[in-house]
Specification:
Helix content is 2%, strand content 36%. It has 346 residues and is mainly β. A hairpin with a 6-residue loop joins β20 and β21.
Length: 346
């Protein structure tokens, strides 16, 4: 996990607390979560197919765990005194990329799905994180401060050929590939607050998708390529994040979660029928699932005094699409709001 209280990174768990781009220390994470207005949900089956990998600090530091999509069969994959977070499934379900500070600064590692063969992929003077696999599993997009502020990079799945894609004064983080591999959606501070942007997979033709006075963070592309989920503080005027969704061209923005509490880090089920996310509605931080239309809210993890964060849903290998090399630009809406937000949420 990256340094605490920086201005270059969105918090996966407490976004509205601590600024647009911040990551709190594990101890602070536990302390700041308060009970939501709604009663806690019962642990319920029905999460969906596949497995969910996530980070949890139930043993004092963040480690990587995996569970069935109904919340059962929880298994710890990493066990160290360092901080491991932001896990990401490979498309074929055999590997998990994650970030760790076990060797000093934050770097990207990969391991087998059972936690074996943990291997370091990056070794830079900066902080590396946010790794996400390309749809064909051949590459990883990630964010790094190796050249100053956070920028988006791409590398081969074995760590070779690390290449910078963005070159901005402001931070670019949290990349996610389109299902066809032709584009990457990401979060940027190119305005006065965090917004969602999209670009070709080679870094060309960046287009802004959201423009709101409050932060939009951690985008996740739907399996069918039609929608992008993200967390936004707009509905609460900066008090807490909710899960939102929009069309892949930035149109039809709509609110998904309405828990009156902190909802973060959406992750799609392989069939696109549900979204997993983290929430602090009743003490501790739990992983919930919800339908994209806001119905069917279910709780997958319980417990208090610790948290479960940044879930990633295992993809269905039968539905993997072959990566293309298209650089067709995304549609640019002509009726978007002005591109200079008037305020930045603090």
């Amino acid at each position: 996990m990256l340094p605490a209280y920086t201005d270059d990174r969105p918090s996966p768990v407490v976004g509205a607390l601590g600024g647009a781009i911040a990551l709190l220390l594990v101890a602070a994470i536990v302390l700041v979560f308060t009970r939501g207005d709604d009663d806690d949900l019962p642990i319920a089956a029905g999460g969906g197919p596949g497995k969910i990998v996530f980070a949890s600090n139930q043993k004092d530091d963040l480690d990587i765990y995996v569970m069935n999509a109904d919340g059962s069969g929880r298994t710890q994959l990493t066990d160290s005194r360092s901080t491991e977070s932001y896990p990401s499934w490979s498309p074929d379900g055999t590997k998990i990329a994650f970030e760790s500070d076990r060797d000093g600064n934050n770097e990207i590692y990969v391991m087998d799905a059972d936690g074996k063969n943990q291997t370091r992929l990056t070794d830079s003077r900066g902080e590396d994180g946010y790794a996400k696999w390309s749809p064909d599993g051949s590459k990883l997009a990630f964010a790094s401060t190796r050249d100053g502020n956070y920028e988006i990079y791409v590398m081969d799945a074995n760590g070779k050929n690390q290449t910078r894609l963005t070159r901005e004064i402001q931070s670019d983080v949290s990349p996610a590939w389109s299902p066809d591999g032709g584009r990457i959606v990401f979060q940027s501070l190119r305005g006065e607050n965090a917004d969602i942007w999209i670009m070709n997979a080679d870094g060309g033709n960046p287009v802004r998708l959201t423009d709101d006075p409050f932060d939009d963070q951690l985008p996740a592309w739907s399996p069918d390529g039609k929608s992008i989920a993200f967390q936004s503080a707009r509905a609460s005027a900066g008090k807490y994040f909710d899960i939102w969704m929009m069309n892949a061209d930035g149109g039809d923005e709509r609110q998904v979660s309405r828990t009156k509490s902190e909802s973060n880090a959406p992750a799609w089920s392989p069939d696109g029928s549900r979204l997993a996310f983290t929430n602090n509605r009743s003490g501790g931080v739990k992983i919930l699932v919800i339908n994209p239309d806001g119905t069917g809210l279910r709780q997958l993890t319980g417990g208090s005094g610790f948290g479960n964060f940044v879930p990633d849903w295992q993809r269905d290998p039968a539905k993997i699409v072959t990566t293309t090399t298209t650089t067709t630009p995304p549609t640019t809406a002509t009726t978007r709001r002005p591109t200079t937000p008037t305020t930045r949420r603090r």
